[in-house]
Structures are given as structure tokens and as C-alpha cells.
Write a structure and sequence with these properties.
By secondary structure, this protein is mainly α. The protein is built from seven helices and two strands.
Length: about 170
């Protein structure tokens, strides 16, 4: 049997299992957190699930399964941003235990995101976008940002892209 295949139910017939989409993976992780009685993980995943339900309503879809992985990634990034804002507030309010709880949630949420681009990869992507758009100054920054964000496909933060574009166009 080849690597990555599992034996099927009838006489060792190899089958290839499809890769689980993010929504199904989140549902499975909720079930496992319930079984493990991991209250913090369960709470974070339920908040994410709630955010996904709101995204379904906004999109006018039938259920979470109708969301594409790209939509789910967008929702996860939004939740990460909310948690990071909460961390700043808790640090300023001298509540380190709450900040640590939010950091744990960020780490959990980031496990669902695709691998982030390295600084070198981002710089190369920005260089390509500048050449592609023919940008010569900060006036064309919007076009470069749009091109980079489309190619990065959710693997980089907008602030990092903005900083790199400013650096290369400035």
C-alpha cells in the first residue's frame, strides 16, 4: 500500500480520504474539546463558531458548510484581531491573567490559518506587485496593496503589507 493511503473496508482496497475543510475541522475540534472537558479551548471554538454563523447570515448562505475556506480564514483573522485588541486592553488595565487567556485563544485560532509569509517572501511579493502595476510612488500604493493582498491569500497581515509597500515605494 502506498504512503498516505489507508486500507479500505473490503480486502485491503486502498482509498484516499479527502482533506477536511476548515468548518468540519472546527466542528471536530469542538467535539474533542467537549470530550476532553477542555473549557478554555471549547469556549474559544464556540466563539469562533458563533462568528462563523454571523458570516453565514451576512453572506445569505444556508449553513457553515456553504462557506469556502477563504471565508472561514477571513472570519478567523477577524477573531484574531479582536483578541489582539483585547490583549492590549487587558495589558493596559493591568489584568495579565485575562491577557494570557486571550493569547492562548490567539494561538489556537492561528493553528487554523495557513502558514504566514516570511519577510523575504513578502518583500519578493511586493517587488513583483510593484513591477506588475508599474507603481512609481506612494500615489499608486492602493493598487500595489490590492495586488499583494490578492496574491498573499490571507497569509499575511495588512499592516505588514502596508509597511513593506511603504518601504519599497518610499
Amino acid at each position: 500500500m502506498a504512503r498516505g493511503e489507508t486500507a479500505g473496508p473490503a480486502r485491503g482496497v486502498p482509498i484516499n480520504l479527502p482533506r477536511m475543510n476548515l468548518t468540519a475541522r472546527i466542528d471536530e475540534d469542538i467535539k474533542s474539546a467537549m470530550k476532553a472537558k477542555d473549557a478554555e479551548k471549547l469556549g474559544a471554538l464556540r466563539m469562533l463558531k458563533s462568528s462563523l454563523k454571523y458570516a453565514v447570515i451576512e453572506k445569505g448562505a444556508a449553513n457553515e458548510a456553504a462557506l469556502a475556506d477563504a471565508d472561514v480564514i477571513t472570519v478567523i483573522r477577524k477573531r484574531v484581531k479582536q483578541c489582539q485588541d483585547a490583549i492590549e486592553g487587558f495589558v493596559q488595565g493591568d489584568r495579565p491573567e485575562q491577557a494570557e487567556k486571550e493569547r492562548a485563544e490567539v494561538a489556537l485560532l492561528e493553528s487554523y490559518l495557513p502558514a504566514a509569509l516570511s519577510a523575504d517572501e513578502l518583500a519578493a511579493l511586493v517587488r513583483d506587485a510593484i513591477a506588475e502595476t508599474g507603481a512609481t510612488g506612494k500615489a499608486q500604493m492602493g493598487a500595489v496593496m490590492k495586488a499583494v493582498m490578492a496574491k498573499a491569500a490571507g497569509r499575511v497581515d495588512g499592516k505588514a503589507v502596508n509597511a513593506e509597500v511603504m518601504k519599497q515605494l518610499g
